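Troubleshooting entry. Yesterday's outputs looked truncated, so today I'm pasting the complete records for two proteins to confirm everything comes through intact. If either block looks cut off, that's the bug. Protein one:
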Amino acid sequence: MKRYLILAATVLFYFGAQSQGPSKTKAKKYPSLFWEISGNGLKKPSYLFGTMHVSSKIAFNLADSFYLAIKNSDVVALETNPETWQEDMNNYDMGSPNYRYGFNPGITNDMPSDFFNIRTLRFGKYEKKLEVAMFSKPSMINNLLYRSQSDNNSDFEEDTYLDLYIYQTGKKLGKKVAGVEQYEQSMKLMAEAFRDAAKEKNKKEKSFDYDEEFSPAKLQEAYRAGNLDQLDSINKLNSQSDAFDEKFLYRRNEIQANSIDSILKSSSLFVGVGAAHLPGNRGVIELLRRKGYKLRPIFMGTRDNKQKDAVEKVRVPITFSTQTADDGFYKVDIPGKFYHFGESFLFDQQQYADMANGSFYMVTRVKTNSLYWGHNADGS
């Protein structure tokens, strides 16, 4: 879980550097978040879109050209494929309480689990556990489906974040879905980036002496304007480690561009990646141009609420299957496989996120030791 959150936070660090504009006199080289890909033998255009990994309404300024591009594409892709996220995260044991509290997965904790102390034969009352279970809001589900900051921000947030919205729109329109990076590969590069940065001898000092025009506080205004030039300038200004950038940004740019090129050889594509990956000499736009593609900016008009409302009314068909507890205590029908993403030592939680429809299924089991309190199965 911690590694997953670090990845999201680091991506936002890159993206959060975006601001208003590099210069009021210099023409913008990357004036849009939205690009058409053509040439190089393509029979019809494909599309590249710079996303923002948040649910803020300001990121959802999506015009009809956005929806038409998805409708006209065969494949919709993100950095990684949301359909594999739960299995990937499960393989990394990100849902375990140990991961949340800082223990490394796959490494045995030295603290013995079978020691005997004064609390061993003590059984606490279970009402508080039940209360916590009833009101729990799993952070893993929030990270997967919603990315909401708090209940107080609901008026300023959409029901999901922009990346997943692109995936959901593609699924609802019957498109194939894909990723332009492999989850495990991205995690490995992230770990290597932090390692290389720690070893780097000539670290750059972050400068706080820059014009207000370059302030990260202008993020929303810049994103709404689609100003990728400023994003590139601010990233370079705020970068503290060339070694980190080499792995986490530039190497991933190459992987993304190569994957896009591979998909384009057989299918038309709408691909959304973090906007920080697009601009610059080593960004995805220039890497694709060097492969022979033509990329031109698409300037989106006003937000198209009708298209958005129409998409949100569609529900992706699902098929239910029976999931049984390991000890056979319960059976439930859900449209997927349960994952143990419980985040508390108080109870056992099994969760499944329906990524396409933005809903989730959860079973929470609380160990009550009720017989020791003289309570029977019906709670009396």
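Protein two, checking that the full record survives here as well:
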Amino acid sequence: MCLQTGGEVPRKFSGSGSDGDIVVSSARAYVNAINKLISWNKREQQQHGEKQEKAKAFTSIPLEQQ
């Protein structure tokens, strides 16, 4: 998410692979890029969940205690 506009930002992921066979090398690069995408998504979901938990904790404080 873009911090200034709140909109979605398209992401690009690249990978690298090395092998004597170009097809195997391409497959390794593809898998490497997919792994980066998966770990980025997991981090984003975790950070989004933490933000929601903080918001819930803040809004659940009764007015008498503020």
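Both blocks look complete. Sanity check on protein two: The CA atoms of residues 42 and 48 lie 10 Å apart.
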